[in-house]
């Protein structure tokens, strides 16, 4: 659909809302009416051509006494995977002048849809609004507006008598775009920020499809491929993916069968996705668009897919998922998608923090990868920058990165320009995963900096102010396909362990000085069995004095001698009291030694260092070179090291513009001076002269 037609249709829908719903609904509630009517009109427009044939056949079946489950036969006559058995079309209803009759006939019209449409209507909850629309005399006005012959809601173009196109068809992705744009416009009026939540811009989807299919286009065979999106929104990513792979296959003389699978947990977007599957004529495929949360209610458990494209939510809490699991704690999750057996750890957790679910969607996709086919599986998923570095070593975030990289699943990450999404002005990245890398890519990861590959939009769409047009998309794919030969300004290739590190604790000894004071003795427990401790410390003050001791172990040795004479055992609890009352951390004191003669670590001085896996000599060499010369009393224990992984585009693509040289600056000043005919010299000279 061209931009002019799209803009016209968008303005038309907005105009319907303003004309029909003002003073009846708040602007933020316009969507409750406009979106379901939008979909109903789309169904109606698709069925119009064969409506009379359907009704004629229905009456014929009824005359023969066949009135049970006529949907399959009538769908066949309609040429669609859905049908409406009502005697009316929306165009018929617009002529009703009696509101009560219109209300009855409209309900009859809705009830006439086949069962697969009924589920969609129920998600929209449009029947709940019929009384209000009828009482306010708006139902007929809405219908009249939506059947305006100047606008085409069908999936087929309207033609002139000579066969030329009069009105373009409304394709799936354009409908999704309109859906999100209408929501955005309504919400701008009420400061609600829901627009863009369930929809990815077409240019980004096209790039994702390119990354999914073009690298393996030579391996595509005449067979069936399964495409999945666990956060499918309106389903645009699935349908664009299907179109891409079919086009690539056809160019190579291959005929592929595509099965689409998606899950969505928002009523409206789920209804839109199912509606478009039906309109495309894919009734069985519509059953593969399922409602519910992918995280806590996986509708495709233990299933595998060839391609997975997804733009999951990020930066939002997933605490509600824990309730769906039975009000459990994060630590109690047992789902095998997120708690796996890896590297000898049977409870290796891939669970991120409660505040961001994006890595759960990635782990979900990884769990659904095929391993028995030549192509394996390819995943292309949108993420924020936090997915690359958030979480310390051993956390769910880092563990998932570690698993993906150590299993050699991560093929590439593409950094996108900012302001590419309708409600996200932050940096975003496309992760590309596969479990069947081509030989040259094994053990390596490609980073592509496409942040400069953007074209300004004529008018912003929410936060989206740039797009990646076809030429820029081709540039990005050329970088991807060139691999190690790509321009290093935009693309670099690294060994997997470039991003790995050991998190090690650098320990320093606890140093305590000791002084027995009267105030300290008073602070000791005065009653019960520990009253004997008071007596001991009084005697110790008399015997050892009240000078400050800088060797804690020597002090405790003397104190133990006194205790033994009194048959008093210095238990761990009593030693703890003595430390708390009579000791002070002192950098000039000797290290405190444990019973084995090893220095006790000072928890307050512990620091964690990240030792790169590529560091020559590993942890010990790093310690000897980078730590010990500056902190001679420090030590490190390799056995306590935790493996972590993180990535940073800034580290590798820090394209800071070089500062100009002094000579260049002086030359510019001289050029300015000459252009002002010596004015600068006269001013400076006058100031200096004064």
Our count of helices gives 27
Rg estimate, integer Å: 35 Å
- Major sheet: 9 strands, mixed
Uncertain spans, ≥5 residues at pLDDT below 50?
A: 191-196, 678-690
Structural class: alpha/beta
Distance between the termini: 73 Å
Taken as a percent bin, the fraction of beta residues is 5-15%
The strand line-up of the biggest sheet is 5-4-3-6-9-11-10-12-15
Report helical residue fraction: 40-55%
Overall geometry: elongated
Mean pLDDT: 89
Please tally the β strands and state the result: 20
What does this 3D model show about the protein?
This protein has 690 residues and is α/β, with parallel strands linked by helices. The protein is 42% helix and 14% strand. It is elongated.
Summarize the structure.
Helices cover about 40% and strands about 15% of the residues. With about 700 residues, it is α/β, with parallel strands linked by helices. The longest helix has 19 residues, at about 5-20.
Characteristics:
690 residues, alpha/beta, nine-stranded mixed β-sheet, three-stranded antiparallel β-sheet, 27 helices, 42% helix, elongated, disordered C terminus
């Amino acid at each position: 659909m061209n931009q002019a037609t799209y803009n016209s249709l968008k303005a038309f829908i907005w105009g319907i809302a303003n004309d029909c719903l003002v003073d009846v609904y708040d602007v933020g509630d316009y969507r409750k009416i406009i979106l379901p009517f939008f979909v109903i009109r789309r169904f109606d427009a698709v069925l119009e051509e064969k409506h009379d044939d359907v009704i004629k056949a229905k009456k014929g079946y009824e005359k023969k006494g066949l009135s049970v489950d006529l949907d399959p036969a009538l769908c066949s006559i309609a040429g669609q995977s859905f049908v409406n058995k009502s005697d009316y079309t929306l165009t018929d209803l617009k002529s009703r002048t009696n509101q009560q009759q219109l209300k009855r006939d409209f309900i009859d019209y809705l009830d006439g849809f086949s069962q697969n449409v009924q589920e969609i209507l129920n998600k929209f909850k449009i029947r709940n609004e019929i009384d209000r629309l009828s009482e306010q005399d708006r139902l007929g006005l809405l219908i009249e507006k939506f059947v305006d012959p100047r606008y085409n809601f069908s999936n087929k173009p309207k033609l002139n008598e000579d066969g030329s196109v009069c009105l373009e068809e409304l394709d799936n992705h354009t409908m999704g775009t309109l859906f999100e744009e209408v929501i955005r416009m309504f919400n701008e009026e009420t400061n609600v920020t829901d627009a863009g939540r369930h929809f990815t811009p077409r240019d980004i989807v096209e790039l994702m499809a390119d990354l999914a299919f073009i690298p393996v286009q030579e391996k595509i065979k005449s067979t069936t491929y399964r495409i999945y999106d666990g956060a499918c929104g309106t389903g645009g990513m699935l349908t664009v993916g299907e179109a891409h792979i079919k086009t690539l296959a056809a160019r190579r003389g291959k005929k592929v069968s595509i099965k689409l699978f998606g899950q969505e947990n928002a009523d409206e977007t789920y209804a839109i996705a199912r509606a478009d599957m039906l309109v495309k004529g894919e009734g069985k495929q519509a059953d593969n668009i399922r409602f519910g949360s992918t995280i806590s209610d996986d509708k495709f458990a233990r299933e595998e897919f060839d391609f997975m494209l997804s733009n999951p939510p990020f930066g939002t809490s997933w605490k509600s998922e824990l309730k769906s699991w039975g009000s459990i704690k994060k630590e109690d999750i047992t789902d095998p998608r997120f708690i796996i057996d890896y590297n000898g750890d049977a409870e290796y957790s891939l669970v991120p923090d409660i505040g961001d679910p994006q890595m759960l969607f990635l782990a979900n996709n990884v769990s659904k990868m095929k391993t028995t086919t030549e192509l394996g599986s390819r995943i292309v998923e949108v993420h924020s920058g936090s997915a690359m570095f958030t979480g310390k070593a051993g956390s769910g975030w880092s563990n998932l990165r570690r698993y993906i990289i150590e299993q050699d699943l991560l093929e590439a990450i593409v950094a996108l320009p900012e302001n590419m999404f309708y409600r996200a002005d932050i940096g975003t990245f496309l992760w590309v995963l596969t479990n069947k890398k081509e030989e040259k890519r094994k053990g390596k990861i490609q980073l592509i900096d496409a942040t400069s590959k953007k074209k300004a939009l004529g008018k912003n769409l929410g936060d989206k102010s740039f797009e990646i047009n076809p030429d820029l998309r081709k540039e990005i794919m050329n970088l991807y396909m060139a691999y190690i030969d790509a321009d290093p300004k935009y693309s670099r290739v690294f060994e997997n362990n470039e991003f790995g590190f050991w998190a090690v604790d650098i320990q320093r000894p606890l140093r305590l000085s000791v002084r027995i004071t009267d105030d300290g003795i008073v602070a000791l427990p005065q009653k019960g069995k520990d009253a004997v401790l008071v007596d001991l410390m009084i005697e110790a003050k008399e015997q050892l004095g009240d000078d400050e001791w800088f060797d804690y172990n020597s002090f405790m040795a003397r104190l133990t001698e006194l205790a033994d004479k009194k048959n008093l055992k210095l238990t761990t609890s009593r030693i703890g009291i003595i430390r708390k009352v009579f000791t002070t951390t002192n950098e000039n004191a000797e290290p405190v030694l444990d019973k084995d003669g090893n220095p006790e670590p000072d928890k307050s001085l512990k620091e964690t260092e990240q030792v790169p896996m590529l560091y020559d000599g590993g942890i010990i060499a790093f310690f000897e070179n980078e730590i010990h010369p500056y902190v001679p009393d420090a030590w490190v224990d390799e056995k306590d090291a935790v493996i972590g992984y993180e990535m940073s585009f800034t580290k590798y693509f820090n394209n800071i513009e070089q500062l100009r040289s002094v000579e260049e600056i002086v030359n510019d000043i001289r050029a300015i001076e000459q252009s002002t005919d010596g004015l600068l010299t006269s001013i400076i000279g006058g100031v200096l002269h004064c």
